[in-house]
Write a structure and sequence with these properties.
Length: about 260
């Protein structure tokens, strides 16, 4: 007990103080000491540690005035690798799938193919016959050889009359040739040439001339766009009238597009 306190107390067991604090002190003896100094905390250094090592905090100051040095481990470096790359069907969505881990990703890609474009080159066929040939009414002219062919949409066998279509679609067909009367014929001599598709005449695809003498000759040229709905489809250049001679004849077929 502090010697300055009186040697008696009240009903709450509190001493009546003498010299150290005012009378009727509210504290139970001994009385509190003077206020202490405020503590301080400062951050010292912050260092990056190796990945996977523990974090550290070290007080390089005092307990009253702390200076804390931190060691914070670095995160592990992530990796990204390309796994497989697959071509998907045209029109399907692209896909990217991680078959690795979030830390070490392995990405598989599915990339859809582009939509098929139009034909890169036109499909066509040209055929011709150089020597003169005679034909009677109802005959189909023969083309003895092919010139240029691109693609498989149109075919022709040498020394045949049939032009064959192997793909449906729209086609432009053109004919050119020189016609003259055959010997021992009577005049006037009408000669008609026309396209026939699968045995049926094509409207608007014809040319006609009335020959008046043996010295008369005529260049026949006509063209038409046709529709091919089924395959195979045949096309012929058919004669009506005559007899006549057909010289330097040629036919050209160009595929224009799909139905």
């Amino acid at each position: 007990m502090n010697q300055n306190h009186a040697n008696h107390k009240d009903g709450e067991n509190r001493f009546f103080c003498g010299g150290c604090c005012p009378l009727f002190c509210p504290y139970v003896c001994p009385c509190p000491g003077p206020p202490g100094e405020a503590a301080t905390v400062e951050v010292g250094t912050v260092t990056t540690g190796e990945p996977g090592t523990p974090a550290e905090v070290t007080n390089v100051g005092t307990s009253q005035n702390a200076v804390l040095d931190f060691v914070i481990p670095a995160g592990e470096a992530a990796t990204v690798e390309v796994g497989t790359v697959t071509t998907g069907e045209p029109g399907t969505p692209a896909e990217v799938t991680n078959v690795g881990t979030p830390q070490n990703a392995v990405l598989n890609f599915v990339i859809p193919a582009g939509e098929s474009g139009g034909e890169t080159a036109p499909q066509f066929l040209s055929a011709y016959s150089t020597p003169a040939q005679s034909a009677n009414s109802g005959d189909a002219l023969i083309f003895d050889r092919n010139a240029l062919i691109n693609g498989t949409a149109v075919t022709h066998v040498n020394n045949s009359a049939d032009i064959l279509f192997q793909e449906t679609g729209y086609y432009q067909v053109s004919f050119h040739g020189t016609v003259s009367p055959a010997k021992c014929t009577s005049f006037p001599l009408p000669v008609l040439l026309y396209f026939e598709q699968n045995g049926n005449p094509l409207p608007g695809a014809a040319a006609q001339h009335n020959f008046q003498s043996m010295n008369d000759n005529e260049v026949y040229a006509f063209s038409q766009i046709i529709r091919v709905d089924s395959i195979p489809t045949s096309l012929n250049v058919v004669v009506q009238g005559g007899p006549a001679l057909y010289d330097t004849i040629s036919i050209t077929v160009l595929r224009l597009g799909d139905l």
